[in-house]
């Protein structure tokens, strides 16, 4: 399962301690071990083969085929319109690219809420047709029955609490959740329900760092945060955001590692100039 202990690697000239153990393949059990040993879990999104290849090669632990593909890949305003067939298509492409990471696939809106039988058949369809390793769904107590039914088929389930974008029309805004005591208590209660139901991990989105840390300390399963501070067991970001491919979206929690929107736009501009000026192709770029 693992190769060496206390591995070090050179990244951008700095020596960085990246892992306590080097895992060849990430499973849900590896994530639980990371939680136990205090190794932080890294998670990013991917929706296609090429991006998944890059992210997996970079050593990410978990790739989330997020329903954020509804916004990022399909240009919808919310995550609601993406279909099961579209999610399966994205996930199958990601799975074909990945050697090491655990691939978690979001169950899209309307495929699991309020009907545990449908939830099970949606989850089975995802696993069968995409080859993904686990599913993720949003909600607390209200989706308990769906989670338990999916688990009967041996499909690992990741929970998602806090800001749950599939409920945007209920909440009305994408602002920080559970700032008030009542909502914070409900979130803690829901987190315990998800753990008890058998979820192997939990995403906490856009909640106060103090609350997120409390949840992570309370639960034995890994808690992976996005906009939930550093006191949780791992971090997830949307790859297109952290690479700077998107540029309209700048929440406080987002760290951009590249500015690909500017770099790629500039590359396109230079290509246009080269084509128009007949500089491209040159003598060495033709047969
Ligand atoms: O769909 C998604 O990308 C997500 C992450 C923001 C956690 O659910």
Textual characterization of the structure:
The structure is a single chain. The chain has helices spanning 28-37, 49-57, 69-72, 84-97, 116-130, 144-152, 168-171, 181-197, 209-218, 239-242, 260-276, and strands at 2-11, 14-23, 41-45, 62-65, 102-106, 134-136, 157-162, 201-205, 223-226, 234-237. The protein is α/β, with parallel strands linked by helices and 287 residues long. The chain has a single domain (26-267), classed as Phosphoenolpyruvate-binding domains (TIM Barrel). It has an eight-stranded parallel beta barrel with strand order 3-4-5-6-7-8-9-10, surrounded by seven helices. A two-stranded antiparallel sheet has the order 1-2. The structure holds 3-methyl-2-oxobutanoic acid. Residues 45, 64, 66-68, 106, 203, 205, 226, 236, 238 line the site of 3-methyl-2-oxobutanoic acid (KIV).
Question: Helix count?
Answer: 11
Order of helices and strands: EEHEHEHHEHEHEHHEHEEHH
Strand content: 15-25%
Biggest pleated-sheet summary:
8 strands, parallel, barrel
Q: Which CATH class applies here?
A: Alpha Beta
What's the pLDDT, averaged over the residues?
94
Write down the Rg: 20 Å
Shape descriptor reads globular
The CATH architecture name reads Alpha-Beta Barrel
The beta-strand count equals 10
Question: What structural class do the secondary elements suggest?
Answer: alpha/beta
Intertermini distance = 49 Å
- CATH H-level homologous superfamily name: Phosphoenolpyruvate-binding domains
Work out the helicity level: 25-40%
The total domain count is: 1
Ligand set: 3-methyl-2-oxobutanoic acid
Give the spatial strand order of the biggest sheet. Answer: 3-4-5-6-7-8-9-10
Uncertain ranges: 1-10
Assign the CATH topology: TIM Barrel
């Amino acid at each position: 399962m693992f190769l060496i202990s206390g591995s070090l690697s050179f990244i951008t000239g700095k020596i960085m301690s990246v892992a306590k153990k080097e895992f060849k393949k990430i499973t849900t059990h590896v994530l639980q071990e990371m939680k136990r040993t205090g190794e932080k879990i890294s998670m990013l999104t991917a929706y296609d083969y090429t991006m998944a290849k890059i992210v997996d090669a970079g050593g990410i632990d978990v790739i989330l085929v997020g329903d954020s593909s509804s916004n990022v890949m399909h240009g919808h305003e919310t995550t609601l319109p993406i279909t099961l067939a579209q999610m399966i298509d994205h996930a199958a492409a990601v799975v074909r690219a990945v050697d090491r990471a655990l691939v978690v696939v979001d169950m899209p809106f309307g495929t699991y809420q309020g009907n545990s039988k449908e939830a099970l058949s949606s989850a089975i369809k995802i696993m069968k047709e995409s080859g993904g390793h686990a599913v993720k769904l949003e909600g607390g107590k209200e989706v308990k029955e769906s989670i338990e039914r999916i688990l009967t088929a041996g499909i690992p389930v990741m929970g998602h609490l806090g800001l749950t974008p599939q409920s945007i029309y209920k909440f009305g805004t994408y602002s920080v959740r559970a700032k008030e005591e009542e909502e914070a208590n409900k979130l803690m209660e829901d987190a315990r329900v998800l753990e008890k139901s058998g979820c192997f991990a939990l995403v906490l989105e856009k909640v106060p760092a103090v609350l997120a840390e409390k949840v992570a300390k309370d639960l034995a399963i890994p808690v992976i945060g996005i906009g939930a501070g550093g006191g949780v067991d791992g971090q997830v970001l949307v790859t297109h955001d952290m690479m700077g491919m998107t540029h309209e979206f700048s929440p406080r929690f987002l760290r951009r590692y590249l500015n690909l929107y500017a770099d790629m736009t500039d590359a396109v501009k230079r290509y246009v100039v080269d084509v128009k000026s007949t500089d491209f192709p040159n003598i060495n770029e033709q047969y």
